[in-house]
Specification:
alpha+beta; globular; 14% helix; 28% strand
Amino acid sequence: MEAAAPDLVTAVIGFRQWRLHGVELWSLLAMDRWRRGVQTAHCDRRDHDAPANGCTCGIYAWYAPPPRGASAATPDLVAGAVALWGQIELHAHGMRGQHAMVVALALPYSWGDKRRSILAAADAFDVAAVPARKLKAAALEHGELIPRRMRPPDTTPNKRKAPGEPAPARLRAVADGYPGRSPARRGDAVP
């Protein structure tokens, strides 16, 4: 019996953020330290290959780079790009992969300690350190983006529901500007 042909024959590019400790990159939510070279996902909860449908295991990545300023106000957050391959599970906004490798790190706007740390980390990982606006272009030298037609639709685009109609008093406070200021003090007529 023949194996099914893969959908893509090249590495897939994804984007993520890490915590930077010295020249080390650490996953945001898991206690995983990334190393130079290939990272292979594993599942700590079950005995199966990662990623698996119905489980949260795998190496996470978004389809698009995070906003350029997403890492700017933090001393340790760094954005970057990864090449993913092997088994890949696609979701509405990102994916989980079996194997990954860091291919580029985004430099912050400012010149300072964080920039020097990212340059040192990029050197340790033997990857490019580029301005955030050039991250996607640098990543595409190592693979391709998942085409939109292959991505599952987002079936819940508005996850937060509005609380309903505001109370009339709240409408007035919002319409009048600063809530501690009465309309009479501004010279407005009181209804």
